[in-house]
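Researcher: We're teaching a course module on how sequence relates to structure. For the next exercise, students receive a sequence and then see the predicted structure as tokens, so they can try to spot secondary structure elements on their own. Here is the exercise chain.
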Amino acid sequence: MINIQFAKRLQPLQSNVFADMDRAKALALAAGQQLIDLSLGSSDLPAEAHVIEAIAQSLHDRTTHGYLLFNGTQGFREAAANWYEKKFGIKVDPQTEVLPLIGSQEGTAHLPLALLNPGDFALLLDPGYPSHAGGVHLASGQIYPMPLREENGFLPVFADIPAPVLAQSRMMVLSYPHNPTAAIAPLSFFQEAVAFCQQHNLALVHDFPYVDLVFTATGDWGKEGHKDMGTRRYGDNSLPTSSSQSLVPSILQADPEKSISIEFFTLSKSYNMGGFRIGYAIGNAQLINALRQVKAAVDFNQYRGILNGAIAALTGPQSGVKTAVATFQQRRDAFITALHRIGWNVPTPQATMYIWAKLPSRWSQNSIEFCTQLVKQTGVAASPGAGFGKSGEGYVRFALVHEPSLLETAVERMAKFLNSN
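Model: And here is the predicted structure for the students to work with:
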């Protein structure tokens, strides 16, 4: 048998938190467990009817059946630019400052190919989303993990980055509201990030999938000290500009000239279109063009019908977004209440579809073993914090992708597991 030699860049990609848990779930199912999967942030809610109708109508249009090049995406790019301007009050050129993507993950994974030479550093959040690191490894870059600590509101401390690392760095990746910690960041934090990246000539990348999944008027803002989460080092400047319709800031509100910044959006969370794989980048024209060059070497674009559905989502009624937010807020409250009932006192997040829970002391240094044994013994699947980075150890992430009654059943099973272990 021929011994095929593979590139060294594949070595760091051999382990992935989602793939590892997928194997553990398969073993649990094979052993007869009834699975409650809280490990993957894939929304169980449906896309809106007017979105599905736009895609369905496209199927009968034979002109949509061919390759779709950049100029054919003009309508989608205009819809994205208009959506952004309406939401954040910043004008965007759909010709030079918007790029369609096959989900924001494609953008964050491919952009390092346009920015890094072998050995260059990327500054990444730790813990953080796995594709951010994967893209750096594929570009033969180095990763400097910026630790996220609870005492800092899960925000990085830029002053802690060593000067020799900064001298070799080409990009910084942020993502707030944050996966997995569910932390939010104030506008003043983004302003500091922009100034820091301008000073050190870094491209500033912001992954922004949870722009709409922010909870308000819950009566618990400030409960258990959460009013300070994300603002402890940044005063009270935590709101976007007055022209914004968003409850959380965009990186471009801190960099309105788009001098160094690019932001990635997806329709997976706000519009429940994860399986359709549609997202886009907005920002600095040079960064957009560089990413476009990489993308052109890898693929064309999605089926035009999917873009038509995305246009319908961005320009049509937004009641479905509000329904999704209310649904995840209800699930959050039910899950948190059930955890508190069994004595697991975890913080109440203000955004995302996740609960980031500190593990009991018995498991504080082995989140992978906790999740493996949990699914094996109870059928409840969660994501180990260590799978998101070294600083995630000691935590576990639960995705709120089931109805409240099933979430409460999951907590009941976990209570038995914790008591028996």
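Model: If you want an answer key for the exercise: Residues 319-341 form the longest helix (23 residues). Confidence is low (pLDDT under 50) at residues 217-231, 236-242.
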